[in-house]
Each structure stands twice: as C-alpha cells, then as structure tokens.
Design goal:
- By secondary structure, the protein is mainly β.
- It has a single domain, classed as Jelly Rolls (Sandwich), CATH 2.60.120.
- It is built from no helices and 9 strands.
- A 5-stranded antiparallel beta sheet has the order 1-2-9-4-7, with no helix packed on it.
- This is Cupin domain-containing protein.
- InterPro entries: Cupin_2 (IPR013096), RmlC-like_jellyroll (IPR014710), RmlC_Cupin_sf (IPR011051).
- It comes from Rufibacter sediminis.
- Pfam families: Cupin_2.
Length: 107
C-alpha cells in the first residue's frame, strides 16, 4: 500500500527575516522539547561573541558569509551560502558576519 504525500510550497527561509543595522535579528521557527530551530540575520560586522551550546547544533548558511571560530582549538574558517557546519556541545565558538549573512541554527 502506498501513501500519497501532500505537497505544499515551502517558504523561502531567507525572506522570512530582515537585516537591521543596529543588531542581529533572530526568529524562532521551531521550539519543542527535542529541538529548537532559529533563523538569524546579521548585517556586515555583527557578531556572536564566544559562547557554548548545551547540545550539538547544525548551522546552515542561507546567504552571505561569516567568519566562524573555535577559539580554544585555534580553528577558524569562512562559511559561505549553502555550507553547513556541526557545532559540538559545550565547545566555545563565535562568528562574525563578513557580509550581510543569514543562517539557520538547529539544536
């Protein structure tokens, strides 16, 4: 027996949030006991200071680019639209927008 799938248009995530010159913007897309998904928009130069997350997380770049840093490991890289990175739990990390930058964080 096959089950028919209902199709519906998915929103363009990047268009769901706008840049602000004053501070980065965030919007919670999903908040359940098992998972939290957050959409972020950073204008050029805005950043998240070094912090940790209690669970592993995935960061998916939607548009623009950022400098991503694991300071204690002295590892860094530039992330571009379409790239994804896994952020291990309890590992300090930070990022800075190199251009207007949008991302989805899944944790």
């Amino acid at each position: 027996m096959t089950t028919a799938l209902t199709t519906f248009p998915l929103p363009d995530l990047a268009s769901q949030i706008s840049y602000s010159p004053d501070k980065f913007q965030s919007q919670i897309l999903l908040n359940s006991p098992d998972q939290k998904t957050i959409l972020f928009a950073f204008d050029q130069g805005q950043e998240l200071k070094t912090h940790t997350t209690p669970k592993d997380a995935l960061l998916l770049v939607l548009e623009g680019s950022c400098y991503f840093l694991f300071p204690e490991e002295e590892k860094s890289q530039t992330l571009q639209a379409g790239q994804i990175i896994r952020i291990p739990a309890q590992v300090p990390h930070a990022l800075k927008a190199l251009s207007p930058f949008k991302m989805v964080l899944i944790k």
